[in-house]
Amino acid sequence: MKVAFIVPSLQNLGPTIVVNTIIKHLCYNGVETSVYYFDESEAMDFICPVYKIVNNSPIDFDSFDIIHSNMYRPDKYVYHWKHRIRKAKIVTTIHQDIFRNLRYNYNCIISVCFTPLWIKYIKKFDRKIFISNTIKNLYSFENSLVIHNGIDIEYDSQSADQLYVEKIWKLKQHGYTLLGTYAAINRGKGIDQLIELARIRKDLGIVIIGNGKEKHALQLLARRYNVNEQILFLPYLQSPYNYLQHIDIYVMPSRNEGFGLAMIEAAMVGVPVICSNIPIFHEIFNENQAVFFDLENIGSLSEAVNIILSKYKYYKDSIYSYVMNHFTGEIMAKKYLNLYNSIVD
Questions:
Q1: Cβ contact 138:97 at 8 Å
Q2: What is the dihedral of CA 306, 311, 314, 315, to 10 degrees?
Q3: Rounded CA gap, 332 and 327, in Å?
Q4: Using H for helix, E for strand and C for coil, what is the string for the chain?
Q5: Residue 71: which of 207, 258, 302 has the closest Cα?
Q6: Mind listing the pLDDT tens digit for each residue in 171-185?
Q7: How far is the C-alpha of 62 from the C-alpha of 66, rounded, in Å?
Q8: Nearest-angstrom CA–CA distance, 161 and 235
Q9: Structural domains in the chain?
Q10: Domain Glycosyl transferase family: where (predicted)?
Q11: Are residues 2 and 65 in contact, defined by beta-carbon separation less than 8 angstroms?
Q12: Residues 186, 21, 164, 313: is their CA dihedral positive or negative?
């Protein structure tokens, strides 16, 4: 079997990480894979051939059995050239609530204009794969199914940049319990709630890893609340989970999320997790594995910290065991391979 994956870029972001994970396991199972992309960026390493799409020109679609598209530009590209595809089956993965994701990453105008277009493209695919039932229930696409994300981490704390490790330890030496989070920072990630928490909890330090359009606003908020000494902002870091051994609790305070891959990574490192009380997170974990807090309720977030600290080993062990049995890359890739085989057959 031959499978072509099309992604916006090779940047180390959630959808591309998922694609890379699938590819590794497909290759181990003898599937021939290739990756096609549009935008130049700092690239992830792939174990298969990688090609840049130039001037929106068509690839040799029918030299593949499956064309697997991910995100808006690839979906639009496959839709545009669909009339040229005779043999290959076309598949797309929907990684988020399209309307809300566009709103948080861009603005309401972009969301209103582009959501109907994107849905129009998706409807023409042979299979539509959702990464959660929460997202699937928002749409009424035919020939759709759910495959939860999975991840394989190459945990190596020795590869962490010692400059940033020292900064984390300097914060920890103040006696703080450290909460950590990492993301492409926008308002939908809800990280401002952690800064609000630092304002009322002087026993907590917050480590925020990542860049994004809301980062400067968060830095201003930390200064306004006079909690600078409790907050450590770090830039985008490759394999940020390698820094989590120095963190006590991972927090995912998202207002909107497609899945929540970062908290799966944190759990695999052995860090207990607090997450916001949104449907997608309840689909991934239950109250025995993670502690939930009510969005925009800083008191609830503070209490979640207390609950984790009161049963720290229980939550650490429970979530680790659960993710290793449900959300590994091997488990996810096997489901994709079964899907591809069923389509080709």
A1: yes
A2: 0
A3: 7
A4: CEEEEEEEECCCCHHHHHHHHHHHHHHHCCCEEEEEEEECCCCCCCCCCEEECCCCCCCCHHHCCEEEEECHHHHHHHHHCHHHCCCCEEEEEECCCHHHHHHHHCCHHHHHHHHHHHHHHHCCCCEEEECCHHHHCCCCCCCEEECCCCECCCCCHHHCCHHHHHHHHHHHCCCCEEEEEECCCCHHHCCHHHHHHHHHCCCEEEEEECCCCCHHHHHHHHHHCCCHHHEEEECCCCCHHHHHHHCCEEEECCCCCCCCHHHHHHHHHCCCEEEECCHHHHHHCCCCCCEEECCCCHHHHHHHHHHHHHCHHHHHHHHHHHHHHHCEHHHHHHHHHHHHHHHHC
A5: 258
A6: 999 999 999 999 999
A7: 9
A8: 12
A9: 2-152+328-344 (3.40.50.2000), 157-326 (3.40.50.2000)
A10: 172-317
A11: yes
A12: positive
pLDDT at residue 214 is higher than 80: yes
Q: How much of the chain exceeds pLDDT 90, in percent?
A: 88
Q: What does the block give as tokens for 318?
A: 């429970």
Q: How far is CA 303 from CA 15, 298, 300, 309, 320, in A?
A: 33, 9, 5, 10, 22
Q: How confident is the model at residue 23 (pLDDT cuts 50, 70, 90)?
A: very high
Residue 278 CA from chain centroid, whole number: 15
* Both structure tokens of 190: 């809800």
pLDDT value, residue 62: 96
**Distance (Å, rounded) from C-alpha 58 to C-alpha 64?**
13
Q: pLDDT tens-digit profile of 132-171? A: 999 999 998 999 999 999 999 988 878 899 999 999 999 9
Residues 271-279: contacts with CB under 8 Å, at least 24 apart? 271/180, 271/244, 271/247, 271/316, 272/308, 272/312, 272/315, 272/316, 272/319, 273/249, 273/315, 273/319, 274/179, 274/249, 274/250, 274/301, 274/304, 274/305, 274/308, 275/251, 276/190, 276/252, 278/254, 279/134
């103040």: which residue's tokens? 174
